[in-house]
Amino acid sequence: MNKKAESFQAYLKEKNLSAFTVDEIKDDPFHTVVFRSQLNIDGNNLPTIVIADDSIYSMIRILVAPKVPEGSEGLAKLLNTYNQTFKAFKYYVDNKGSLILDISIVSADESLNGDLVYALFQTVIEHLNESYKNIMKEIWK
User: Fold this and answer.
1) d(CA 76, CA 82)
2) Which tens digit of pLDDT belongs to each residue from 56-104?
3) How far is CA 49 from the centre of its chain?
4) Distance of CA 36 to CAs 28, 33, 123, 140, Å?
5) Helices 114-140 & 3-14, crossing angle to 10 degrees?
6) 3-state DSSP call for residue 21?
7) Are 58 and 49 in contact (CB under 8 A)?
8) First vs last Cα of the chain: how many Å apart?
């Protein structure tokens, strides 16, 4: 397990947080570790992962919707507004058509600051509680 993942796992243990399962990616040159969980937003469980590896970046990734329609101008405009408004996270549609919300975390050393990750989760949960219905309205149009 890489040092950032070890530090995050220690933080979870210290705070007695058991919301994550841990998967080490075998034969990965960056020694990637994925912490899996889910966020309950508006009665929907959104798959959520924290990715920690040997690079300077860690990531919180949330699957907001598994499939979005192509060419939705309303959705694109809404997501662009969110991307311009919120510096810490970005929405995008991946190559499978899923709507993803990524939060990038830069680590200057070999640790992953658990308090920072917790604060980012609080921020994104607050945002999703306010915006999820609007996003889904655009997807269902």
Assistant:
1) 10
2) 999 999 999 999 988 889 999 999 999 999 988 999 999 999 999 999 9
3) 6
4) 18, 10, 19, 27
5) 90
6) strand
7) no
8) 44
Tell me the pLDDT tens digit for each residue of 9-41: 999 999 999 999 999 999 999 999 999 999 999
Rounded to whole angstroms, how far apart are CA atoms 13 and 32? 20
Q: Hunting for tokens 């995008």 — which residue is that? A: 92
The DSSP 8-state label assigned to residue 25 in this structure reads: P
Q: Are 138 and 74 in contact (CB under 8 A)?
A: yes
Separation between Cα atoms, residue 10 and residue 68, nearest integer Å = 37
List the structure tokens of 42: 């508006």
For 25-110, strand residue ranges (E) read 33-41, 44-52, 57-65, 89-93, 99-106
Q: Which domains does the chain have, with CATH numbers?
A: 3-140 (3.30.1460.70)
Residue for token pair 């996270």: 89
Neighbours of 49 (CB within 10 A): 18
Contact (Cβ atoms closer than 8 angstroms) between residue 22 and residue 35: yes
